[in-house]
Structure formats: C-alpha cells, structure tokens
Amino acid sequence: MASRPPPRFVVRRHDDASQRRRWLWLGLAWLGSLLVVGLVVTALGRRANAPAAVDNRQQRALLGQIDDLKQQLANLQRAAQVNEVATRSLRGTLAQREEELNGLRADLGFYSRLVGGDAQRQGLKLQEVKLQPITGSRGWNLSLSLTQNAKRGNEISGNALVSVEGLRGDQVARLDWPALGDAAQKDGLPFRFTYFQQLHGTIVLPADFRPTRLRISIQPASGEPVNRAVAWGAALSGNITNAEGDRDAQP
Length: 251
Fold this sequence. Notes:
The chain is α+β, with helices and mostly antiparallel strands. It contains three helices and nine strands.
C-alpha cells in the first residue's frame, strides 16, 4: 500500500496573545528610546544654559554694586556741597566779625586818646581822613575827624584847609583850597569843639589832573597849626587814622 505524501501546508492555531506581547515590547522599546533621547537632550540643554545663568547672576550682582556706588557718590557730592556752603557762610561771618573788631579797635583807640590815655598826644590832632568818590563826576566827599584830649577841657575853634598835589600833564601841580572847595567855604572848613568833631566838605578836580596826595592844615584860632600829608589812595581806602603820613608836612 503506497504512503501518502506530506501535506504542503501546515495548519497552526493563531496566537493573538503572543502577537500582542510582541507589539507591546516594541512599543515599550520605542518609548524607552524616546525617553533616553529626551534625557540626553535635557542634560545637554542644562549644560549649555548653565554658563548663561551664571553670567546673568554675576551681571545682576555687578549692577547692584554699581547702583550702590552711584548712591554713595551722590551722598558724598551732597555732603561736599553742604560743606562748601557752610564754609562760605563761615568765611563771610569771620570777615564780618573781623571788620567789626577792627572798628571796635579803632573806636577804642579813638576814645583812649580822647580821654588822655597817651600823654604824648595831648592837644589838637587830625584823627582820621576819608575820601569817597561821587559817582559820575570829578568830585569827592571829604571827611576829617579832629580830636582834642579831654583833659584839656577847653573849646577850640579854627579852620581846616586842604590842598591836593598831583600831576597835570607831565608837570607836578598843586591845587589849593580856593580852587577845590565851595565858594561859601573859601576860608576852609570851620570847626569848633571841646572833645572831637567831624568836618565834611566836597572837592572837585579838573579832568586833566591826577591826584597823588592830600595836604591838610588844621589852623586853630590860637596855638600852632597841625599839618599832615596823606596819600590819595590811602585816603580813598579809609584806613588812615591818626593822620598817618608825613607828620612834618608843611602846608
């Protein structure tokens, strides 16, 4: 009896569970690869961003320090301005006090000599000479202070004559009181006092005359005249006291 040939096709049962497991593993493997790729990309991104984050922190820290330094500089500038204002105010106050002290010293010397504090300065004397220009003119206001020692206690009278020396062109010239003063005071500035008196007058100079010195002659009704020479600039400054200048000047 002849044998039958083997069948060309084998019929097997289809295993759906095995197929599903295979696809599950493939899906898990694919998800795992995606996860690994994501982790790698994240790590690389963090490494790349780390220096930038450090730079940003350093930049913020430096900006904060710059703001602090700016504020300190502004505070120092304000303090310097306050100190400058205070210094100017103090200098002005000191200058004012110094001027007041100088005035008090002058007054003290004046009254000291007036009451006889200096025995060598008895009698009539020219205590002070002042000149003040009259704006817009060739005129000057003249002020003479005369004193007499209080110990004498006698009234004294007379006239004060003033002349001005200077240059007229290239020549030395002298203008006497009649050419300087008011016609109503042609004999000079009259005085009459017991202790002290201040005389006031106005002198006018020609336009081509350059004054250099005042010559003052105090002529009492009785007794010797007092003659003094005072530099023009010194009289303008008002710092001439006790007739500083050529004490032996002749009128």
